[in-house]
Amino acid sequence: MQMNSDYYIVDKKVMPEVFIKVVQVKELMEKGLVSSVQEAVEKVGVSRSAYYKYKDYVSALSNNSRGKIVILAFSLEDKAGILSLVLNIMADQGANVLTINQTIPINNVANVTITIDTAGLTLGIKEMLENISKIHGVISLKVIARE
């Protein structure tokens, strides 16, 4: 049997404890119940290095019926039409753009943060980001938060 997914849903009962603790640290940070990562990892009982190693790879499954809210950060060349191409790919693949924030370009690079609702995606978020990364002028892109 061939597995073609980069993501798996795993029952919390069989998941390594370090992953559970990383999710707990993220929840404390998101809810503002702690003032620093150090305070959160101490409260949960996980090392900072373990938290930073896994924080971008472990998330709790959201029960949001609308879909997941994803915040993306981009560095784009300061050339006319690049942001438009990014937004067109998002629209073509069913992402609903909720917010766009763009800095004034410095050294011909603009930093852009886009928040999307992924409920209507026709492809996965990974595939959409791969398509966006192929645009000439997209210097970098990163998922910075997921609901």
Describe the structure.
The protein has about 150 residues and is an alpha+beta fold. It has five helices and four strands; from the N terminus they run αααβαββαβ. The chain has two domains: about 10-55, no CATH class; about 70-145, Alpha-Beta Plaits. The chain has helices spanning about 15-30, 35-45, 50-55, 80-90, 125-135, and strands at about 70-75, 95-100, 110-115, 140-145. The protein is globular and about 50 Å long.
Helices and strands in order:
Blueprint: H1 17-31, H2 37-44, H3 48-54, E1 69-77, H4 82-92, E2 96-102, E3 109-117, H5 125-133, E4 138-146
Antiparallel strand pairs: 1-3, 1-4, 2-3
Helix pairs in contact: 1-2
Average pLDDT level: 87
Class based on secondary structure composition and strand pairing? alpha+beta
Distance between the termini: 31 Å
Task: State the domain count.
Answer: 2
Rg result: 17 Å
Number of helices: 5
Shape: globular
Number of E strands: 4
Assign the CATH architecture of the largest domain.
Answer: 2-Layer Sandwich
Order of strands, main sheet, comes to: 2-3-1-4
Query: How much of the polypeptide forms β-strand, as a percent range?
Result: 15-25%
